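User: Before I run my own analysis I want an independent prediction to cross-check against. Here's the chain; please return only the structure tokens and, at the end, one sentence I can use as a sanity check.
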Amino acid sequence: MRRVTDGSPADLTAVSTLDEPLRRRLYDYVRRQDRAVTRDEAAHAVGVARSTTFFHLDKLVEAGLLVVEFARRSGRTGPGAGRPAKFYRRSEREIAVRIPDRSYELIGRLFARAIAAAETSGHSPRDELRGAAHEYGSAVGRDAGDVMAGLETCGYEPRVEDDAIVLANCPFHSLAREHTAMVCEMNLDLVGGLLEGCRDEARRAELAPAEGRCCVRIRSGV
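Assistant: Structure tokens:
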């Protein structure tokens, strides 16, 4: 499970579902198999009753951790072939919860896009990264239609202080500590693009590094 999430109720439920010991054992058994398994196989593997196994398997399905398939084990079809059996296999859904929110998958995608673009554009990967960040931010801004909502979508934790919006969280925290200038530039372009996408001409993004928060601040006025 590796999907990076912002801690939405559905994703948190999926993670908390595995806190029940028997449920975790069932999930671990199913995910280790190279094929879908039946309820009877799972019950035998963990040594519990079929009815109990059925309950917990379906809870894992509800949480999106397992998926159900139906098939006839004999391979026969048509009249007399019997009812299809219910099989379980691991879902392709990827989940990972990070608190506070981190968006390392996003920055990885932006890096990959920048490197690919630099191979043909003649621009440096760093310049392409800034362009990709601005484009992404603009798209988020258009979809959100609101600056605060867009910032929250990106994981920034915006807070209003006097006439400015400060960002209490950097979604790229670890990378920002190692590659400060590059990541801060990217943050600036992403937030600037978001403002543009929201058509907010009354504010502008600027670099204003401070301890315990993102390096970008949004200030009122041009």
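Sanity check: The longest strand covers residues 66-71.
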